[in-house]
Design a protein that fits this description.
It is built from four helices and ten strands, in the order αββααβββββββαβ. By secondary structure, it is an alpha+beta fold. The longest helix has 20 residues.
Length: about 200
């Protein structure tokens, strides 16, 4: 092995080690958030969940979604209580797509790798991790709508994220946190909110 190949080997080794080190840190869930607060909500307000007819058809799934929303709402100073005047409807939409990742970086003779959803290969033996090139992408969105006793919407917020993480509960919880950023007086217009969660 000549000096050029030795140098290429060490460059590849340290780049791969850095990539693995980055995988050990927290995940960044970057979200697009759009919130509306047409009426003031007092700090420490109490609320109860309200369900749409379609949500009543899947009580277990809605229970899980409301639990995630309840945790985020507690961080925002809201407290759940049956019979409360403030009614909250929470919804979530998810879809999955599989798109092969085409771009990558190749270094040296027969040695290369691709960042993101790419593959790692040595020589002409094919990918070291088969199937990574077709890793699915997940798009998710959560929504919260709060109504007062008169049925007027007093707060509305939507948060969405697209990424490779398949653990829906962790990502949906982060989306609810993002949707409630700035509550009860969030900034107007679409904004980006980053939430860190453990790997």
């Amino acid at each position: 092995m000549n000096k050029a190949r030795v140098a290429i080997f060490f460059v590849a080794f340290f780049a791969f080690a850095s990539l693995l080190a980055g995988c050990a840190g927290p995940r960044l869930i970057d979200t697009q958030v759009n919130s509306f607060a047409p009426q003031a909500i007092s700090s420490g307000a109490i609320y109860q969940f309200e369900r749409l007819p379609s949500q009543m058809a899947d009580p277990m799934g809605q229970d899980k979604l409301e639990k995630l929303a309840e945790q985020a709402m507690a961080k925002a100073g809201l407290r759940r209580q049956n019979g409360a005047a403030l009614a909250v409807v929470v919804t979530a939409v998810q879809r999955q797509e599989s798109t092969p990742y085409q771009s990558g970086i190749n270094i040296g003779w027969g040695l290369g790798w691709a960042f993101g959803n790419g593959s790692i290969g040595i020589g002409h033996r094919g990918p070291l991790f088969p199937g990574i090139g077709a890793q699915p992408s997940y798009w998710r969105q959560v929504s919260l709508i709060m109504r007062n006793a008169a049925g007027q919407v007093v707060f509305e917020s939507h948060a969405s994220h697209e990424g490779v993480w398949s653990d829906s509960d962790a990502v949906l919880g982060a989306l609810f946190d993002a949707a409630l950023q700035g509550f009860p007086n969030p900034p107007g217009g679409v904004r980006r909110v980053n939430i860190e969660i453990p790997r």
